[in-house]
Amino acid sequence: MNGFDYNPRLVRHPLDFERRTLLNAKATIKFNPSKDDPWFEVVKMIGAYYAVQTIGMLKAIKS
């Protein structure tokens, strides 16, 4: 084991969501250079949307 206090266990949590609003939107992205995360350029933005929704986590399923 490396870096864990105990053996890792994979658990899947299904989601339940209720979407109330979904609209196309205009957006821009600007990244500032950082020594910890060197990404600073968006090559091609595909799209953006605005959503209002309620998301809940259901009972876990063991994998």
Q: How does this model look, in words?
A:
- The structure is a single chain.
- The chain is mostly beta strands.
- It contains no helices and 4 strands.
- The protein is 0% helix and 37% strand.
- Strands 1-4 form a two-stranded antiparallel ribbon. Strands 2-3 form a two-stranded antiparallel ribbon.
Characterize the biggest β-sheet: 2 strands, antiparallel
Give the terminus-to-terminus CA distance: 20 Å
Measured as a percent range, the helix fraction is under 10%
**Counted beta strands:** 4
Share in β-strands: 35-45%
Mean pLDDT: 83
Question: Which sequence of strands runs across the widest sheet?
Answer: 1-4
Rounded to an integer, what's the Rg over CA atoms? 19 Å
Shape: flat
Show unreliable segments: none
- Quickly give the structural class: mainly beta
Order of helices and strands: EEEE
Number of helices: 0
List the helices and strands and how they pair.
Layout: E1 11-12, E2 15-24, E3 49-57, E4 61-62
Antiparallel strand pairs: 1-4, 2-3
State the gist of this model:
The protein has 63 residues and is an all-beta fold. Helices cover 0% and strands 37% of the residues.
Which properties best describe this structure?
single chain; about 60 residues; two-stranded antiparallel sheet; about 0% helix; mainly beta; 4 strands; two-stranded antiparallel ribbon
